[in-house]
Amino acid sequence: MAPRGPGRVSVLLPTYNERDNLPLVVWLLVRTFGDSGIDFEIIIIDDGSPDGTQEVAQQLEKIYGSDKILFVFPSGTAYIHGMKYATGNFIVIMDADLSHHPKFIPEFIRKQKEGNFDIVSGTRYKGNGGVYGWDLKRKLISRGANFLTQVLLRPGASDLTGSFRLYRKEVLQKLMEKCVSKGYVFQMEMVVRARQLGFTIGEVPISFVDRVYGESKLGGNEIVSFLKGLLTLFATT
């Protein structure tokens, strides 16, 4: 059994064209961990952004120190690459576009300690969780995708397509070895595989806020690939 509660938390922060958002999300993370007294590191994994995100990441590393902020170039999947550098026994995965507020991370950690969970997932669909800044179409797509997933896969978690989660490091490593999906389906497969392998999942209601700067990556191609991935998971799990 892994030790109860996190000793050090590693945040994996994949970025693409997040020059405007990155300084603020890093500042919020540093402040949140500082206020909570939690030891941390932030690993920024940039996928070749042409907008200057990499230069911003390098500046942040200088400002906060490389023991707290580490900027790396990915080779292959960002999460797998970022994990090679992670020294924490727990890993937070989140978006860098300010849709995930770091203030929920201490709640994730409290929840993990409370139930000794392997994974704590942020949920928009339980308790006082919610989505802000989306139009009706986007909300319907998200709700519909989640409903379809619940019906077909019965995963035992309320938000399958969200990407704001806390994992035990060794659990995340095992799941990465099993998962084959990419994009939006990847987050869903992580939960389904976790249930298959007998890992425990806790949930914390979160507020999801649509990105302030930059463009959403959700388009028709992503919806088609989501449906294909869902059917593949249904057929193989």
From TrEMBL:
It is an enzyme of class 2 (transferase). GO terms for cellular component: endoplasmic reticulum membrane. InterPro entries: DPM1-like, Glyco_trans_2-like, Nucleotide-diphossugar_trans. Its EC number is 2.4.1.83. The keyword Phosphoprotein does not apply. Residues 10-175 form the Glycosyltransferase 2-like domain. Its cofactor is Mg(2+); Ca(2+); Mn(2+). It catalyses: a di-trans,poly-cis-dolichyl phosphate + GDP-alpha-D-mannose = a di-trans,poly-cis-dolichyl beta-D-mannosyl phosphate + GDP. Pathway: Protein modification; protein glycosylation. It holds the Pfam family Glycos_transf_2. It is found in: Endoplasmic reticulum. One of its GO terms (biological process) is dolichol-linked oligosaccharide biosynthetic process. CDD domains: DPM1_like. GO terms for molecular function: dolichyl-phosphate beta-D-mannosyltransferase activity; metal ion binding. Its main location: endoplasmic reticulum. Keywords: Endoplasmic reticulum, Glycosyltransferase, Magnesium, Manganese, Metal-binding, Transferase. The keyword Phosphoprotein does not apply. Transfers mannose from GDP-mannose to dolichol monophosphate to form dolichol phosphate mannose (Dol-P-Man) which is the mannosyl donor in pathways leading to N-glycosylation, glycosyl phosphatidylinositol membrane anchoring, and O-mannosylation of proteins; catalytic subunit of the dolichol-phosphate mannose (DPM) synthase complex. Component of the dolichol-phosphate mannose (DPM) synthase complex. Belongs to the glycosyltransferase 2 family. This is Dolichol-phosphate mannosyltransferase subunit 1. It comes from Erithacus rubecula (European robin).
